[in-house]
């Protein structure tokens, strides 16, 4: 009887811990989407295919190719954390101006820091905003908009450089918005 009670208590503790972790993950994402600074990034076309995960669009960005000269220190190793400082240029486009291994302190309002991971070969960087799930049948429409350079991502960035897609913009209008829940 006592052994069964201990097992039930242990299972309850494990279930509670798992629920707490999931709740933290959801609330962290909601907080980022609600309070993160918004930037708009033009998208370059990438052709996705994944039958197991449903229909989605793979997104490529000009800022994913950071010139090696912008990185402080030696070349980055694959999967190494990199902080890329973006600067807003005329016309509203964001361009990398610096890359570091430690979070830089930059208080310029025309700059923002994105946290990413270095990719094999040169200084390609992934920021965690490279795919977006869409309703069934919408993928080809978005891929066509990307090819014609009419597609952009509205991205929220928190103070730590973490990024999340808030929505997709076609021809300057928000067309797809990420739900908070």
Give a short synopsis of this structure.
The chain is of the alpha+beta class. The protein folds into 2 domains: 1-35; 37-177, no CATH class.
Describe the structure.
This protein is of the alpha+beta class and 181 residues long. The protein folds into two domains: 1-35; 37-177, no CATH class. It has two helices and eleven strands. Strands 3-1-9-10-11 form a five-stranded antiparallel β-sheet. A hairpin with a 5-residue loop joins strand 4 and strand 5 (94-100). The radius of gyration is 20 Å and the shape is globular. The model has no long low-confidence stretch (mean pLDDT 86).
Poorly predicted regions: none
What letter string, H or E per element, gives the SSE order?
HEEEEEEEEHEEE
Helix content: 10-25%
Q: Indicate the radius of gyration in whole angstroms.
A: 20 Å
Strand order, biggest sheet?
Answer: 3-1-9-10-11
Measured by DSSP, the beta-strand proportion falls in 25-35%
General shape: globular
Mean pLDDT: 86
Instruction: Compute the number of strand runs.
Output: 11
Class by SSE composition:
alpha+beta
Number of domains: 2
In whole angstroms, the N-to-C terminal distance is 41 Å
The main β sheet shows up as: 5 strands, antiparallel
So how many helices? 2
Notable traits:
single chain; 181 residues; alpha+beta; 2 domains; 2 helices
């Amino acid at each position: 009887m006592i052994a069964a009670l201990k097992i039930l208590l242990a299972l309850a503790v494990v279930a509670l811990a798992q629920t707490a972790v999931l709740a933290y993950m959801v609330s962290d994402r909601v907080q980022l989407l609600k309070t993160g600074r918004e930037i708009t990034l033009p998208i370059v076309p990438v052709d996705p295919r994944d039958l197991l995960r449903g229909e989605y669009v793979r997104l490529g960005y000009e800022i994913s190719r950071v010139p090696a000269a912008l990185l402080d220190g030696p070349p980055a190793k694959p999967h190494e954390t990199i902080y890329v400082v973006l600067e807003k240029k005329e016309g509203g486009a964001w361009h990398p101006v610096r890359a570091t291994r430690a979070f830089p302190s930059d208080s310029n309002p025309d700059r923002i820091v994105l946290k990413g991971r270095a990719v094999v070969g040169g200084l390609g960087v992934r920021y965690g905003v490279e795919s977006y799930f869409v309703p069934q049948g919408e993928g080809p429409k978005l891929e066509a908009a990307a090819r014609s350079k009419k597609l952009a991502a509205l991205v929220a960035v928190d103070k730590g450089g973490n990024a999340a897609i808030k929505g997709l913009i076609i021809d300057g209008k928000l067309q797809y918005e990420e739900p908070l829940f």
